[in-house]
Amino acid sequence: MEKTETNNNTGKVKTLLKDTAIFALGSIGSKVIMFFLVPFYTFYLSTAEWGVSDLVYSAAQVAIPIVSIVIFDSVIRFGIFYKNRPQDVLLVGIVVWIIGSAAVIPLSLLLNFYNTLKPWIIYVDLYVILSILLSILMCFIKAVSKNLVYAVVSIVQTLIYALSNILFIAVFKAGIEGYLISSLISQLIAVIITLFWAKIFSYLKTAKWDKAIAKEMIKYSVPCIANNLSWWAIQSSDKFMIERMINESDLGLYTAASRIPSIISVFVTVFQSAFGISSSREMDTTRDTSYFKKIFEVFSVAVTFAALALTIIIKPFMMIYTPGEGYEGAWQLVPLLLLSAVFSAYSGYFGALYGAIKKTVNNMLSTFVAAITNVIANFVCIYFFGVYGAVMGTAISYIVLGIYRMVDVNRYMKIDYNIPKLVVNSVVFATATIFSTLDFLKYIVPSICMIIMIIYNFKELKEIITTIFKFLAGLLKRKKKAKVE
């Protein structure tokens, strides 16, 4: 019996790895391109210009969940559930998008009261409309397992975005406007490619309006509005506080520093894209909690280990990575942002489980608690510590969110986590980030912490490395076999 359970878990893990690899093709490729754009931005944009550009993007992000009612989350969840009629699910998403698009302009008029954003209202409107449509389409093609389309479109979109940035910022010297136009162009082209390559119109031709499905999808997605707004508060409210309480230049510094945790986030996002689907399928069939325990043990060690490795090299790396004038102090903001990224990864894992057990209200409440924590912590910390307070407040909110979700999810799924190991790993990593932020023994202490991590988590690290090598060997073997045939 135990052997059968182990074999089943192994098969499920392989399926998860396959899904992860496909999503990685798109997400990692896209994020790598975006990652290498940062030196470009710091060279051509001042800290104030980049800060304002990011503020415009953040303003658009707060409108998206309101006008879309986060219907794209329902598209992927119910696209999987109603696998014999996904076109009906897509139709609901498109109808909601049309209605939501009509509400964008009236809502965006509120930005007239914010002088920094007032000149950029039209860009916010167009970004919101295109972003929602693209999200619906991308979630749909994941639901119907067109994962290769998803991966290629993601890469193409980012390539167009990068080339447009070079053209408008470096050649035409368009500054903030060039930054924003590049985003709109890349989204529009991604939408067009997806519509034709994934044959979206063919799905819509056979789609029928199903009131029951629409009601079920809206019931699922509406609680996500508050959840996404809370996420916005966690991820972006501090940017507005920095701009109001300090200045646009410090916001640009913070923006540059926040790009480093994206190295961690890209792998986490790829994993979560696959795990979200895998966990939903698992809960719809066996509800086997041993699978979730195993995945979390390996996942948590991998994320913490990667973040700690980045902490050790962060100062020399940032000297090369952000060469522009005014960005010299960005490196000291990164360690605590990496701590935030680790707990964000944990919370994302449990967020996927919320989706699998259809507890979107709990998901919303957990994020709301973290959002309130973030706003209060950021206001207090920024007031006393300036831009360093922003990273402190962000770290506090993600720690609260990760712990809250772990405890809450365990009320519905009794997963036997190794809590002592998780606590030790977290304390060791937090110690490294504090010393690095203070610029005191910034190489010695994190290096000692790394040695402790390796020794304490040797079994998990060995398993991670072994699994990766086996996966790569399997791919190579299949490739050779295909050539022979």
Offer a quick outline of the entry.
This protein is an all-alpha fold. It has 18 helices and no strands. The longest helix is centred in the N-terminal third of the chain and has 43 residues, at 2-44.
Structure description:
With 485 residues, this protein is mostly helical. It has one domain (2-474). Helices cover 85% and strands 0% of the residues. The chain contains 18 helices and no strands. The radius of gyration is 22 Å and the shape is globular. The protein starts with a helix and ends with a helix. The model has no long low-confidence stretch (mean pLDDT 88).
Helix content: over 70%
Whole-angstrom Rg? 22 Å
Report the mean per-residue pLDDT as an integer: 88
Structural class: mainly alpha
> Uncertain regions: pLDDT < 50 for 5+ in a row?
none
What are the secondary-structure elements, in order, as H or E?
HHHHHHHHHHHHHHHHHH
The total count of helices amounts to 18
Strand content: under 5%
